[in-house]
Amino acid sequence: MVVKKAPNFVQSFQPWNGNNLIQLFANFVLLFTESAPFLLLGMLIAGMINQWIPRTWVEKTLGGKSSIVNAALIGAPLPLCSCSVIPVAMGIRRSGASKASTASFLVATPETGVDSIGITYALMGPIMAMARPIAAITSAIVAGLLVLWFGKPGKATEQEPQAKTTTNCCHKAKVAPSSISEKIQAAFVFGYGQLLRDFMLWFLIGIFFAALVTTIVPVGFLNQYAQGILAMLVVVLISIPMYVCATASTPIAVGLLLSGITPGAALVFMLTGPATNIATLMVIKNELGKRELGLYLVAIVSSALISGLILDALFEQFDWQLQLSHGEHSEMVGVFYQACALVLAGLIAYQLQKMLLPKFANFKSV
Length: 366
What we know:
This protein is an all-alpha fold and 366 residues long. Helix content is 72%, strand content 0%. It has helices at 8-11, 18-52, 55-61, 68-75, 85-94, 99-111, 114-124, 126-150, 180-216, 228-239, 246-259, 263-275, 278-287, 290-318, 331-365.
């Protein structure tokens, strides 16, 4: 009797058993610990930026005659996720910013930020941490230029006579703090409160995905099936419908790297994922127009693909190596990382209970 062997595709995966579950948990804790200190630092810097760079200054700088490059450079470090960038973009557009500058701002802001650069450095090393903001700013400038050259001319929608205090998923209007101590306190509240709430669930999902891939998919798996431009096109198709912020997209990209995709394909995911969620696309359609929406998507996809191909060529030309984190630290650094992980876990638990307790109270009152 001849036993037929399973295809290589099936044999590539690790069989699932109890040991895999233990290893999955260990990989999750390891990736979380590796990310913690950089994420805490990034959130602190983001909170300081949020307090010391007023939104009114941003709107004034990007108003009327502002340049596309200014919009990209200002938007890149701002601590605004894919959701919170929407009201800011609407504000700068309605205060007089051109369509081109608004498009540039909408691309650069969610694609990168001080927090996402920090976690990219933690999980992928300095090369990817530098490539990400450079590619994001470049794609933002390309988007602005395409809208400037091929978009329809149009005036900004008039601002409402009186601003209202609004609440949405990422922003609640508040009285601005005045003293330095109040600003420092507000920076901590924003960085470790509002900003953390904006991305923590997607961050945890991303860490879990990376740990799962590490556990069951051997390194080099995708090398057998998709490389170069094909792998990048597959990543684009996957990332466009996803709703994920720049910080949360990083561990997902690590998982894809561990499964065998190239650094360029991972960069494509980190560029297209945060900038193409449905909410942002609808705002672009309503505020800028249908043609501008098409130009926006063309700019993001084409810039991401070109950036990915260039990055892969540089890795091959100079024989660069990815520095994916694997917990190889001295005992002192290990203790520091573990302490940061405990602090981050405590902050996440605190934010979760703040989100869930009101819902639980309403459920009990029914």
